[in-house]
Amino acid sequence: MSTKPDVQRSSLPIPDLAYTGTVTYDATDPDTHYPPIERLLPPEGAPNVLVVLIDDTGFGASSAFGGPVHTPNFERVAAQGLKYTRFHTTALCSPTRAALLSGRNHHTVGMGGITEIATSAPGYSSLRPNNCAPLAETLKLNGYSTAQFGKCHEVPVWQSSPVGPFDQWPSPGGGFEYFYGFIGGETNQWYPAIYEGTTPVEPWGTPEEGYHFMADMTQKAIDWTKQQKALAPDKPFFTYFAPGATHAPHHVPAEWADKYAGKFDQGWDALREETFARQKALGVIPENAVLTERSPGIPAWDEMNPELHPVLAREMEVYAGYLEYADHYVGELLDALEELDVLDDTLVYVIIGDNGASAEGTMKGTTNEAFTINHMNELEDDAYLIEHKDDLGTPRSYNHYAIGWAHAMDTPYQWTKQVASHWGGTRNGTIVSWPNGIAARGEIRDQFAHVIDVAPTVLEAAGIPEPATVHGVTQRPYEGTPMNSSFASADADEVHTTQYFEMLGNRAIFHKGWTAVAKHKDPWLASSHGLDDDVWELYNVEEDWTQSNDLAAKEPAKLAELQRLFLIQAARFNVLPMDIRSAERFNEEIAGRPALVKGTSQTLYSGMKRLSENSVVNIKNKSFTVTAKVTIPEGGGAGVIIAQGGSYGGWSMYLHEGTLRFAYNVMGIETDYTTSETVLEPGAHELRVHFAYDGGGLGKGGAVTLFDGETKLGEGRVGRTLPFFFSMDETVDVGADVASPVSADYEATGNAFTGKIAWVRLDVGDDDHDHLIDPAHQMQIAMTRQ
């Protein structure tokens, strides 16, 4: 099997053919002859492939598409290729990524929402069917080397623990031979939760030592590529490079944010006007395009508290620095390919956003997303934001910008991430370059395209047929259409003529120059009405590029035609039944997905770490006990026995200066400590922390009691607790507290436990005065507080 044109590639793996010639007795016999072994390689001329997917970046952010953020390396790729002005995503991260990597619509591969809200319905299960093999697997089985770096938000939450299964992870199940990155929607860029393959690994250093994940993942990608080309130079690679940038938290070295000092003092409304003018000058929107009005519910800049303006401006400075920082490291990777003399033979996709910009940062922005996900924004008032302005972007924050900035980053379109009905949620500037395969340089393409078109485009460029079977399973055909015909000509016919969109009830249909759209809910609000109460809009997007002129009242027959077509497409691609629930679906009992942990007790062992909240019993809004069997060494013990969360919210049981301690951190604004009054002697101990919940609602406080066996060591109180999440990315760790520390005491002790831990047990709901709250009731309360 090699580059020979007669190799059969429609059934993967490519079958091994048995030798049917003469078999001799003696290998030295002159009649002994076997054909030489040939390595499996793709067809001759197949390019390397690099797909760069930036996170949460709207159409109007990058300078390549008229935005205010300087992205010279994106422009560098565009100068060597093509800008696509009508490329679309799904309006949310997990669905876009699943669609990109499979060539099928997101509901077809079970990703109708993010993995954390998966249900048992086929279109929303987060389980990719085995009849939809990923692009990486197809390329690998055709002789490509494959690697993924950065974010993976496609692993079902009940499969994201260290015990797997790993068939939905990038490696091995996703077809990538190597993976270096994080699992989930986001990670702390200063203290990331990294995996190499399926093994958790720690960053090489601290923020003070210069560590940042964007730089780290880039160096890993460069090292992998150099090794691949050194050892198999004739074998092309497929590299999927998916930074956490620019998803929150917006973490970036201060000097990059400082580049933009004063550049956003005019506010988001004026910024939209400025960006719109640049977009027309660049030709990425037509001259007759109309700047849409500010989407309802988003405040004007002048409506904001003037005392907050410097904070709001700094939020955008940090975001801009973060995007330029990401662009810089994309440039580092491109430089490495150029140094290896392979860039000209590499098909490069730069997709600037897996959805529109994120309107998940509140009307004022936040220094810590935990305020929002725990519905405790009242703790972060204007005075707090002003006081902590200089923390934005640093290791002292877990920040996100205000909704007004997100809308500005989606200029010239309506709405933002999550809103699949309008282009602000789904239209992302995309750049394609392949110097040895695309003659055009610096040109613009306006053909409609969608993220599901990437996989068939790559296969056509490589000369590889879409497989009929993979691992014995008959495959569902790709639902995307190749973009290759547009490579040669700006006048090429549009081949992707129909595309549905749906996310949390926000839905639309594009068909031959028209869109019918229905926005069901705002990104920052829960659903308040039924689907049948939604108001449909109609746009002729051949004449009205930005969806600014609603024709629903003037063209009722056309609207009805498109509404019917949406339902046909929805039935065809597993969209039905649409699920407008949001908060409830975070609860696996309501959603119908498996729960990794059941019951009210769980025992963990020394060395277990990187356990997500889905991997441990839920101790929130109830009483709980943590019991640890430990051996304290001679000279005294120190360090973490068990911790959950980090500097922005969490709890820890640990030893410091020989005493047992319990810390409960509420979003970094306050930490309650309970300390034993006795120094523990060397030897075996059964240490226990009991938390008696006050009850009476969500997020209440409680009493803390420390024990050594049955001996009481100390008492204290926790004033309030976190009701919904400790962290979106920090974990439970036994014997250490990886990533950012829950307690400031770790700076003195180091966080690794110096003794031995036999086991740690978590027990919940074991107090006579416990006030358990039904999970469904918790979620209902959460919805009313949004």
TrEMBL record:
- Name the InterPro entries for this protein: Alkaline_phosphatase_core_sf (IPR017850), Sulfatase (IPR050738), Sulfatase_N (IPR000917)
User: Lineage of the source organism?
Assistant: Bacteria, Bacillati, Actinomycetota, Actinomycetes, Micrococcales
Q: What is this protein called?
A: Arylsulfatase
Q: Which family does it belong to?
A: Belongs to the sulfatase family.
Taxonomy, superkingdom? Bacteria
Return any one Pfam family short name: Sulfatase
Recorded source organism is Agromyces fucosus
- Domain named Sulfatase N-terminal: residues: 47-464
